[in-house]
Amino acid sequence: MKITVIGTGYVGLVTGTCLAETGYHVCCLDVDPRKIEILKQGGIPIFEPGLEDMVRRNVAAGRLSFTTDIAESVAFGDVQFIAVGTPPDEDGSADLQYVLAAARNIGRHMTDYKVIVDKSTVPVGTADLVKAAVAETLAERGESLEFSVVSNPEFLKEGAAIDDFMRPDRVVIGVDDERAAAMMRRLYAPFQRNHERVLLMDVRSAELTKYAANAMLATRISFMNELANLAESLGADIEQVRLGMGSDPRIGYHFLYPGVGYGGSCFPKDVKALVQTAKENGHDLRVLSAVEEANDLQKLRLVHKVLARFGDDLSGRRFAMWGLAFKPNTDDMREAPSRVIAEELSRRGAEVVAFDPVATHEAQRVMGDIAHLSFADDMMAALQQADALLIVTEWKMFRAPDLDAVKRALKQPLVFDGRNMYDPAWMREQGFDYFAIGR
Ligand code: NAI
């Protein structure tokens, strides 16, 4: 079985490389020649721990190749994974133009049976649209070749993508015909561990599963953020509350961390898209709409703490910001709370000096329009003469800083921690004015 992966972003590149690692021959296509050039040179266009070595190893072994040639890539794979972006449209619904363009390309060039797999996160009903797009382009050529369309949403997390793909909790496969079901089972056989990981279901349920899972995770975050804000008013410590809640196995410890709001390429757009899908089908998902609203407010929570301390006019103030990426171990800046925070501080006249261990380059690209924002090469350099430190992303390297050096660099020992990285009592003992979330 040979495999084509369409789109070499965070999902496509990991999918293609991990499939090659298990022995498959994989061809990855992208329409962005810059990305393919970097990959051909032995680099990778994104930051993902462990991925670059794995790409090199599989290219060297002759199992993994990259191309911008659509005809070549369609001819290559028996299975064609579509892993292109599905960004939000103006009304919040998923923009399917890239998915459908990929589908039409397959229809235009295929010469034998293909299993076409929607790996991108796509709304319920997309498999039908993909099927129609392929059939239409085949008809334009006067061909009537057989093909199947399968939904196989991806659950990997950026920053831990390789491990998530190689050792999945579950592999959701939505499929309506036996031939494709058998091929998908065989394809994922190398990823079974001590028990069956593949969940076969109908296509629509698979499509909805991905949105349901992300919506649930986003809900936990917004719920904890609101509780954290309440805890502050009540004089409770949300970290203690979190432990008390999480020990109930029905609740569990995961995803109960309050902070500066969720960001990234998935939760914001998937929550929006699900709300929109519901609306189109006559349902008002009130809980999820509130999740989104609470998240928008939470992104400004740290700024409000700064304003409570310094007043509404921040001109002449300088703030150090540690962390730009929407979470650690990635350079992904999509919907990162850091952007909202820096924008608001800047709008109020403050200067912001930011540091991130890997996302600076990407941040320069997407935050270049923010006035009075600059980027430091090193975490300590960002602090020089700043009125306070704001912690926005919980990178490991921020966990145990040299607090004496931090104190010396700042104008005053003042920290606004949006990720609850330190023990408040310890910070006070060290002489800091320390503000965290919910404690
Ligand atoms: P991305 O934006 O990093 O990558 C998409 C790639 O597709 C780009 O390189 C783009 O040039 C390429 N592309 C667009 N149209 C194309 C075409 N017609 N032919 C070939 N290549 C084309 O996107 P990312 O983050 O990898 O996400 C892809 C999908 O996976 C989205 O639907 C996303 O919601 C979903 N997803 C993303 C996860 C993540 O952590 N980033 C996790 C799980 C799902």
Tally of contiguous helical segments: 17
Helix content: 40-55%
- Largest beta sheet: what is the strand line-up? 3-2-1-4-5-6
| CATH topological fold name of the largest domain | Rossmann fold
Overall mean confidence score, pLDDT: 97
**Outline, from the CA principal axes?**
elongated
Instruction: Give the strand content.
Output: 5-15%
Total domain count:
3
- Which ions, cofactors or small ligands are bound in this entry? 1,4-dihydronicotinamide adenine dinucleotide
CATH architecture annotation name of the largest domain = 3-Layer(aba) Sandwich
How many beta strands in the DSSP annotation?
Answer: 14
The CATH superfamily label of the largest domain reads NAD(P)-binding Rossmann-like Domain
The major sheet is characterized as: 6 strands, parallel
Which regions are unreliable across 5 or more consecutive residues at pLDDT < 50? none
Measured distance between first and last alpha carbons = 54 Å
Structural class: alpha/beta
The CATH class assignment of the largest domain is: Alpha Beta
Compute the gyration radius: what is it? 24 Å
Pathway: Nucleotide-sugar biosynthesis; UDP-alpha-D-glucuronate biosynthesis; UDP-alpha-D-glucuronate from UDP-alpha-D-glucose: step 1/1
GO molecular function: oxidoreductase activity
EC number: 1.1.1.22
Protein name: UDP-glucose 6-dehydrogenase
Walk me through the structure:
β1, α1 (10-21) and β2 form a beta-alpha-beta unit. This protein has a six-stranded parallel sheet, sandwiched between helices. Strands 11-10-9-12-13-14 form a six-stranded parallel sheet. By secondary structure, it is of the alpha/beta class. It has three domains: 2-201, 3-Layer(aba) Sandwich (Rossmann fold), CATH 3.40.50.720; 211-296, N-(1-d-carboxylethyl)-l-norvaline Dehydrogenase, domain 2; 299-435, Rossmann fold (3-Layer(aba) Sandwich). Helix content is 44%, strand content 14%. It is elongated and about 75 Å long. The protein is built from 17 helices and 14 strands. The structure holds 1,4-dihydronicotinamide adenine dinucleotide. The site of 1,4-dihydronicotinamide adenine dinucleotide has 26 residues, from α1 and α5. It is an enzyme of class 1 (oxidoreductase). Its EC number is 1.1.1.22. Keywords: NAD, Oxidoreductase. This is UDP-glucose 6-dehydrogenase. It comes from Chromobacterium aquaticum.
